[in-house]
Design goal:
The protein is an alpha/beta fold. The chain has one domain: Metallo-beta-lactamase, Chain A (4-Layer Sandwich). The protein is built from 7 helices and 12 strands. The structure holds zinc ion (ZN). Zinc ion (ZN) binds next to loops.
Length: about 250
């Protein structure tokens, strides 16, 4: 009798184990980290809409000495926790500061998570104002010098600049001069994008002007990172300009 009971426990244990493993295998990646260059990584988090559609969102991780700077949180608080865990296990360096490039959830939803871990989070004055008005998580540090369109501010080895309103009124971009990598965020569309996307908080006319300017200014970029979709080269800027022009026709 005892033997049968032991066998029963064993079979039950095997079943639990196989269910658990199957569940783990079928769980899609929520956050990925991809090396772009020495000391520069792309972080991509996958937001799931209520209808089940998964949508990827990009941010940047930059090595500064023995620590890391984050450009944008993951798209959600839980995904930002996953991102920090992935950084811990894959890059094995602490994140010391972060910058969020505008006041939308795909950029700033994880601000409180970062701050609860002692990471200083910085933003454009308008991002701080908008997140406050929306009742969203508010970055604790404002970079006032970014306020005017055309402003550029050093942020470690990065140059942060505010080109003016585009996809959002507060969209800031980041340039890595040594690597010639441009993080355009949501004001740059990937080649997979066939429309300008969410314009609710943006200014399409200003966006066209700033994109024309970026096209002239960043011809030397070797890599351009859009807010969503695949990283590419300079052609992402001309593609974005075309999408905006088509939208205005
Ligand atoms: Zn946005």
């Amino acid at each position: 009798m005892m033997k049968f009971r032991m066998l029963g426990y064993f079979v039950f244990f095997l079943l639990i184990c196989s269910f658990h493993c199957a569940a783990q295998d079928s769980k899609p990646n929520q956050v990925t980290i991809t090396a772009l260059d020495e000391g520069v990584w792309l972080h991509t988090s996958y937001y799931t809409y209520p209808n089940g559609t998964r949508f990827p969102s990009n941010g940047l991780i930059v090595k500064e000495g023995d620590s890391l700077t984050l450009i944008d949180t993951a798209w959600g608080e839980l995904l930002t926790l996953d991102l920090l865990e992935a950084i811990h296990s894959e890059i094995k360096l602490p994140v010391s500061k972060a910058f969020v490039t505008h006041a939308h959830g795909d950029r700033a939803a994880g601000v409180d998570v970062l701050e609860s871990k002692g990471i200083d989070v910085f933003a454009h004055p308008l991002t701080v104002q908008l997140t406050t008005e929306q009742g969203a998580a508010v970055p604790n540090n404002t970079i006032k010098e970014l306020k005017e369109a055309g402003s550029v501010v050093k942020f470690g080895s990065l140059e942060l600049f505010y080109p003016g309103a585009g996809h959002a009124m507060d969209n800031v971009m980041a340039w890595l001069p040594e690597k010639r990598i441009l993080f355009g965020g949501c004001a740059v569309r990937s080649l997979q994008s066939s429309s300008v996307g969410n314009l609710v908080h943006g200014d399409i006319h200003s966006w066209l002007n700033i994109t024309k300017q970026l096209n002239k200014q960043f011809k030397s970029a070797v890599m351009v990172v859009p807010g969503h979709g695949d990283v590419g080269g300079y052609e992402l800027l001309s593609h974005t300009e075309k999408l905006i022009s088509d939208h205005l026709k």
